[in-house]
Write a structure and sequence with these properties.
This protein is an all-alpha fold. It has helices spanning 3-16, 22-37, 42-51, 57-67, 81-90, 94-97, 115-129, 138-156. Helices cover 63% and strands 0% of the residues. Helix 1 (3-16) runs antiparallel to helix 2 and helix 7 runs antiparallel to helix 8.
Length: 157
Amino acid sequence: MNLDKKIESIKKIINDNADIDGDFWHYAGDELIYQILDTFNENEWRDFIQELNNFTDDERSQFCNTILNYDTNRIVKIVDIYEIFFTQYLLLPLEDAYWILQDIMYVENIREPNLDLLKKLRQKIQTLKNCDISHWKEDTFLWAENIIDKVIEKYHY
């Protein structure tokens, strides 16, 4: 199957099951996508990462949730799953981005964190803190910012 067909299949899985609850994704849906991702070679991963920019917000949001656990039972060396996760997260509109605080600790798992990515991530957290759509408390935002700051300090100072 060529890459276009693989991407089409991933989008179809996401869109056909968009209204199904998280249990489906946890127990079956994620694995359907993982089986396709398992077939990617290095070049396909590189092209796919670029193609993610063309996903709709809903597709991107579900893919972020799915990709976060991809390497739990796999050894993924070709790409950095956590870098993909946070890069795609940054593209989400604010109303779809508030959930990042529950997963922010994974920023420490990025193999070689890019300073620009970390700064943009911290800026998005600050933007979320200053808008009215988030239900998180102030100390949660501070915790998230501190995690990002520790990664910046560890890798870039």
